[in-house]
Design brief:
The longest helix has 18 residues. This protein has 9 helices and 9 strands. It is globular, with a radius of gyration of 20 Å. By secondary structure, it is of the alpha/beta class. β4, α3 and β5 form a beta-alpha-beta unit. The strands form 2 sheets. A 6-stranded mixed β-sheet has the order 2-3-1-4-5-6, sandwiched between helices. It has a 3-stranded antiparallel β-sheet with strand order 7-9-8.
Length: 281
């Protein structure tokens, strides 16, 4: 499953990703350019571990237009913001919610407040609870979100709020990171294709073996032709599919679009199909 980390620059997105991976040494203060992609494994209790392809999106406004090409209802979103900038909360959160509502009928999201170690408050739990209440109220004032909530009774179940510190020396560091991991796991486990609690689960969904073979073949082509422009024609793409060696299913021309959408919406990030028939991989 894709785990998308979004938010404006300097909110702590990349450091949070490193902490979720278990990297306690990363402290580089440098903005992401474009999209960085890494893989993490999250376990909860004695259940099967979940593997996530994590997309760390650059927060600069010049990247917003391209980011929208990668939004998918099959992804779980972490919207990261710096809690010390509570007075700028509307500006930091509203544009991202508006983008998601504009592009997707259904989305699952965890709003993650970072840098709680910098809050000047003796009762941290009380402070976080107060901020959480304020954030919930603020989110519901965003017209796009308010309209969505009014028309979709399950929306509140798809929205969570967590607080963390990425400072490994902070006394609540482990508690915050573990709580966030738990929320990620539980929300991913409940995600459905239509956003309804009784819908078809996304995690663990079965798909044709040929789709995976197609991904492997594209990876091989990329590796062998890494110095060439990464573009092939629709006809070449179909030909690759027809020559796949799959034991249980055979790739057909009509599989082209669903296979491409599947790879884009799950965890394969570099297949884009255009109406012109050109495939960018």
């Amino acid at each position: 499953m894709k785990l998308m980390i979004i938010g404006f620059p300097q909110q702590g997105k990349t450091t949070l990703l490193k902490r979720l991976k278990g990297d306690n040494n990363f402290n580089l203060d440098k903005s992401t350019q474009g999209i960085d992609i890494e893989e993490i494994i999250i376990s909860f209790q004695k259940k099967e571990p979940f593997v996530f392809r994590v997309w760390d999106f650059a927060g600069q406004e010049e990247y917003f237009a391209t980011h929208q090409c990668f939004l998918s209802s099959s992804s779980l979103y972490l919207l990261v913001w710096d809690v010390t900038k509570k007075d700028q909360c509307t500006q930091l959160l509203q544009p991202w919610f508006e983008n998601l509502v504009a592009r997707l009928k259904v989305f699952y999201i965890i709003v993650v407040g970072t840098k709680i170690d910098l809050l000047n408050n003796n009762d941290l739990d009380k402070a976080c609870h107060l901020i959480k209440t304020e954030i919930k109220a603020l989110i519901e004032t965003i017209p796009a979100v308010r309209n969505l909530k009014n028309s979709d009774k399950d929306f509140s179940c798809r929205l969570k709020i967590c607080f963390v510190s990425s400072d490994t020396k902070f006394h609540n560091y482990h508690k915050g990171i573990q709580t966030l991991k738990k929320e990620i796991y539980i929300l991913a486990e409940t995600m459905t294709s239509n956003g309804k609690q009784n819908g078809d689960k996304i995690m663990g969904k079965l798909f044709p073996q040929s789709y995976l073979k197609l991904e492997e073949e594209i990876n091989e082509i990329k590796k062998n032709e890494k110095h060439k422009i990464p573009i092939i024609s629709r006809e070449e793409f179909i030909l690759i599919g027809k020559h796949l060696k799959s034991d249980f299913d055979k790739f057909q021309v009509e599989d082209l679009e669903p296979a491409t959408k599947f790879l884009m919406n799950t965890d394969y990030h570099e297949v884009n199909i255009y109406y012109t028939g050109v495939i960018n991989f």
